[in-house]
Design goal:
heterodimer; A: 237 residues; mainly alpha; 11 helices; B: 340 residues; alpha/beta; Rossmann fold; 5-stranded antiparallel sheet; 15 strands; 26% strand; globular; disordered C terminus
Amino acid sequence: MTLPVWRTEWLTALRRRRLLALNTLVPLTLVATVALSPAPAVHAAAVFTVLFALFGTFGSSIPLIRDGESGLLRRYVLTGVHPGGLLLQRVFAAAALDVVELAPSVLVIVVARGSSASQFVMVVPALILGLLAANALGAITAALAKSVAEGALFSAMAALLMLHWAGTFRSPVPGTWQASLEAWNPFRPLHESLLAAAGAGGPDFAPALFTLPLGVTLAALLLITAAGRYTIGLGGR
Amino acid sequence: MFEATELSFTYPSGRRGLGSVSLRGEPGDRVVVMGPNGSGKSTLLRLVSTELRSRPGSLKLFGEPCEPLSRDLRRRIGIVQDTPVHVDELTGMENGLLFAELYGLLRADAAGALETLFTSLGLDDALDVPTREYSYGMKKKLLIAEALVHEPELLILDEPALGLDPPSRAALLRILEERSGKGVCMLAATNDPALAQELATTVVLLHEGEVVAHGSPAELLAQVGGATRIEVYVAGPPPVGPAPVGLTPGDPTAASRTSVGPTTTLPALAGLPAEIVSIQQLPGRIIAESESGADVLPQLVGAILAAGLKIERITIREPDLTDVFTLFTGLALGTEKENA
């Protein structure tokens, strides 16, 4: 099986060296500043989680809208390629690139905050899952937007709402409906793991934390695949 | 190969893109659509390429209805859009391979076919150059190569020669004729009358979303006759009175019917040679049709100068498909460049 769109995304990213460097260095600057400061773990983790989630959502949404406006997606689809498959390749490639670009930032958090090995091990899958979910969310917001400006607005709103429902901005209250909702949220493992790594302590690697969010993320990806022709639809944007 | 029945389309803004157009193309046919900007050419091509859906109306491709749309049908079509869009960071060859793979080809098979096409189109020097450094014409050639690489049975071409230099244009025509000989059907849109006459087996003239005439180039040109057009661009007092008129030399009323102003009538026109079969006067321009080519030019120029007009430019040309369009609509069909 060939994955031409996946390969194109990687080639494109590697050739935009300035953008690749900025995508690595800019988040690293913010993360290092906060991680090396005496900011409480709860605040630091919120900053890291918001940064990573927005990074993924915008990174997926804006290029999709831009390529839709230029006519490139239309060209792709008119070759007979499955629109859902095309979108999946883009979402996975963008998420993988985000992981690579944010890896130095995660290392800085772990080192600066003196995280344990098990806490670091938990951050890695949580980051991958969170970025995959963020990129899927970006693809969905791109489908609703009719311009880059709308895409930015929708992405920010959707990501911040999801982060709120993940419990990023409040203390968890066990037993409430919000706590039940949190258990399904794909950004929750990211927040929990970053909270632990930032110094709040917390559980070592907990696979159970990932089960429901993984299911939600897979469902979102399935939705994108099934609705691909509407997401980057013909005659639409 | 394709059979469009009463295709129509209205854009979300309410603007009618296409009225009710029916046309068909068989293997080896080269159907060329001409019309001014906004006449529905590109909309028609987008409908036949399955990008847009006609409601009402129906489309069959390769004998199969397009509702519901099978993605396999799309793989049998090659499309050259009017605006070439590529992945700018990739080289020409990488872009070509990307689209070849999307069409379902293996990279190894596609590479050879692309090299041949690049050489034919004169793009072989730019294989490894990122397309962001390509000129418009180079991008257009790459787009043509990408549309041909998978050996499509139906080719849809929107202004395929726009931006190409003469050698590339000639190469494109050679390639298209060769593919046509192998049974490939083509549906093209252009406002280039020379290209249409060279390429088309059938010409369709569109105006405001409707077909105003269709037929082979020879059939259509026969309707405007074979007289040479001599267009004299003049400066002088603007014409007054009724709309431009045609007249027959020797007609005793000629002078009064070609009045260009109370003090600048063209009395000498009445005495022009009989080979000038008609004269039409438009603002700033006098168009004469001559059955003896440019032989009548001295007499015509003399008459115009005698009328006190200053001649700025003269063009002499044989009738083409733009004259056919004018015959049916009363409007001039400029090239895309002129219309833009």
